[in-house]
Amino acid sequence: MKTVLKLLGLLAVIVLAALLFIFSGCFDVAASKPDAGLIAWVLRTTQARSVHRAAASLEGKVQVPKLDDPALVRTGFAHYHEMCVTCHAGPGVEVSEIGMGLNPFPPELAKRRGDEPVEDFWIVKNGIKMTGMPSFGATHTDDEVWAIVAFLKRLPKLSPEEYQAMVKQAGLGAPGVEGEEHEHGGQHQAEPGEEHHEEAGAKPPHAHPPGTPPHKD
Description:
Elements (H helix, E strand, L loop, with lengths): L1 H23 L12 H20 L13 H19 L8 H4 L16 H10 L15 H13 L5 H11 L47
Helix pairs in contact: 2-5, 3-6, 5-6
């Protein structure tokens, strides 16, 4: 009985100490000061294990498409260039001022050598808390998320010249700027050179501001 009371007392002290720490404001939440030591290890390990567990829970529930499908890669490239390259950079494209100010610093995906498509799918779809990585599942279909994953697999193999050639072929603008072909909801994405024929009174393909969910009628 005494052992139980001692354990309960120790637990109460730990909880009280944690509450005092939280309400003291001593922990520096400034993005300009990177976490180090034990805190950095705890955050990195927690994130890695959480993503791994979440991806493992999808086994048998999601079907990985043919990630080397050229059409899928082109679609994923358009989304990456318009939404992701700002923080994650690309071949010949530097991280933007926004990305440079994030803590933790976003990984440069063109330099990555990992190949975990289901984990990539989960991250792109769900995002990661307290990292600046948003949940694109709020504005993109699973097919569009898989397209991004397909391009991520191809990305480390691209040279700066090949990346810029893809930008030109797709008719895209500056990194991080959505083009006219950026559509959601499984709509058709025109190939380079394909003409558009809009019906009278048709809504524009991307009527909502970048980074916000589509407006519901």
